[in-house]
Amino acid sequence: MRLAAESVSLGYGADPVVDQVSLEIPDGLTTVIVGANGCGKSTLLRGMARLLKPISGQVVLDGKAVHKQPTKTVAKTLGLMPQSPIAPEGITVVDLVGRGRQPHRGALQRWSAEDDAAVAEALELTDTLGLADRVVDELSGGQRQRVWVAMALAQQTDLLLLDEPTTFLDVAHQIDLLDLLHGLRETRGTTVVMVLHDLNLAARYADHLIAMSGGKIAATGRPADVVTAARVEEVFGLEAQIIHDPVSGTPLVVPIGRHHRPSAHPHAQGA
Amino acid sequence: MSITAPTEPTRAVDVVRKARRAPRRHHAYVVAVLAALLFGAFVARVLLGDYIITVPDFFRILGGAEIPGATFLLMSEKLPRAILGVLVGVAFGIAGAVFQSTLRNPLASPDIVGVSLGASASAVFAIVVLDLEGLALSVAAILGALAIAVAVRLVAGSDGSYRLVLVGVTAAAAMTAVVHYLFTRANEFDALLVLRWLTGALNGVTWPTIWILLGFLVVLIPALAWISRSAQALQLGPDVATGLGVSRRRTDLLLLLAVLLTALGVAAAGPVAFVAFVAGPISRALNGGRTTLVGAALVGAIVMVAGDYIADYAVPGVSFPVGVVTGAFGAPFLLWLLTRARR
User: Which domains does chain B carry?
Assistant: First the structure.
């Protein structure tokens, strides 16, 4: 266990958004954080990625508080893809992905063959080698998201944190991207931690699921154990049936919604 | 080598190398063209005009020969003016590009957000009230620029360059008011000097001013280039930059050096309007949208030297300060940029 939170409180003003949360991120597995809007899941991820300083408690990376380690040292271990990042104007795909090499270079060191190889590998893994000389602004949303993942991969970290990497992607591109991240676990043994909006995709791709509610952890564990009808009601305020995903065997949340409640007959409601 | 190595990864690396080369080659080409243009503008500024100095005469004068009229004109007017134009243009161009790229907003250049006018107001105060000159004046300009930069940053907060631009424009207006007020308090001799602090001008420059500026630039620019290399990540936004191990404090350090460059330029030539503002976008447009310090420095120098030449000779018998020309050229450019940004 290399990354953990020890009763960490995080927030932007006086009121903490994340309230004394303790958790451990299992190594080499995919951890997905889910929860309703405003439950503090993105804030928690930002805290673990040292983008936010804890109000109290600490985030521990390799046995030491992440905020007390030199940020460049952390960057060699922990990669990060924030929500909808914006590329500078005119930058090409190779140059953007090349920025991921920053933590591995000394201030006076020049670009090396090793850097070339790392960028090439990242482009191949994300299937963007064909875009290498293109300008990032001109790519489609799905391609751009892949390129940002490639940048994080070129950083060659053992841990990778992603904040809603599937936002703005259509469903096919969402699956593509999650497959790609899942593949990393297989090929590189990367520990992936991500925030996802879609509970069904989370249940499908997570080895370890963290459900948050009101700034606290509501449940953690395997998706099959965490995603229950009672818990979905508690965390999302959503009445749902849980069935088996016929493809993956993971839990599949089927929302009931107002109009399909057995008690609520449409004609009776109208009166 | 390709026989023993597996072919697939070698090819991927070759694709990367080739793709990396293209923008660099383009940049080298842009720099070469800009350097040639700057050389042309410099030669025109030094040799042409109302009184033409021939190339052989130019070298004879540099070699120490006394040619009545020509020697004085070249050594105390044309040459120092051209050299100062290059130095100030380089300083403004780099400062503008650093501001715009680290704050990720083309409007956030030091001459728009009040840094130049802060330096100006402080320098005018030093002239009119404290009776300072020379190096002390440079120090006063630097202090003024720093004070305004820090004040704008504190009021605007660290998030969002939009607020910074708003606060900065307000600060710039306030500083103009300060200069105007001091102007009314100045005696006749100082009033002429003060005028330069409102529009910016290259005339009446002395060699010591050039040496002081050059000395500072020789230290500051390499430092800035070195820091900006490792701070390239900042162009990706504060979150990605932190993820890459570049702390937000780098932004402040980089901006601090850019503020110093601006202040030094202003101390030597006044707040020449819009040079810092236009250098970045013009060099970016030539370079496929990518910001480079070398490109911005060259464009800044070209704008200064060519602008000064136009200011001096465009209207026969009248010599404008260079700031009038850059202002006339820069204002429509600002409007164009604003309309483009709305789309």
Answer: 77-342 (1.10.3470.10)
